[in-house]
Design a protein that fits this description.
Elements: E1 3-8, H1 15-20, E2 23-30, E3 33-42, H2 43-49, E4 58-63, E5 66-78, E6 83-91, E7 98-107, E8 116-119, E9 123-128, E10 136-140, E11 149-151, E12 163-165, E13 172-177, H3 179-189
Parallel strand pairs: 1-4, 2-6, 7-10
Antiparallel strand pairs: 1-3, 2-3, 4-5, 5-6, 7-9, 8-13, 9-12, 11-13
Amino acid sequence: MTTLKAEKRSMSIKAKRLRREGFVTGNIFGREIPESIPIKMERTVAERLLKTCNKGSQILLDVDGQVFDVLIKDICFNSMKGLVEEIDFQALVSGEKVHSVAEIILLNHDKVISGVLQQRIQEISYKALPDAIIDKVKVDVGDMRVGDIIRVGDLDIAKNKNIELVTDLDTAVATVIAVHAAAETADEAAPETKQTGNVL
């Protein structure tokens, strides 16, 4: 399991200053933690983590030598600067179900040639014990054709007895629509423009 190193953060130093100095701030919370623990981690370390882990991933968090089994609960990005600013973690408790999400990853989308593939949702919400947590759901869409729909209920995660789905089973995950239908959708979304001729 991936281990991330962090250290406790002094609340006397503002988060903005820490971010300017190259840190990402965050908090650890959980049922067995009376008060959330403010932490900081080097941005380069946090960015390296996020290349393989994401919201919903289970990792080990080493805070000044104390190791927590945690879930990445939330990630805050600054879209203007293109930087991660804060990551919050939930400390897991053995035998206690946790609410999490699994990222949907579509495989073989380049093999869909008879229409336009559309991904309808980005993640699936569920509840599970710590030892049953998953952070990614891979969906093979290579055999899909126009009119096909893959729903949450069609996925392996829906058949996993250790996972209690929160996302509705009928929710569409991916669909394939005809090319002309996709073009019509794009036309409807485009703003109307008026053409005027030059007056001589």
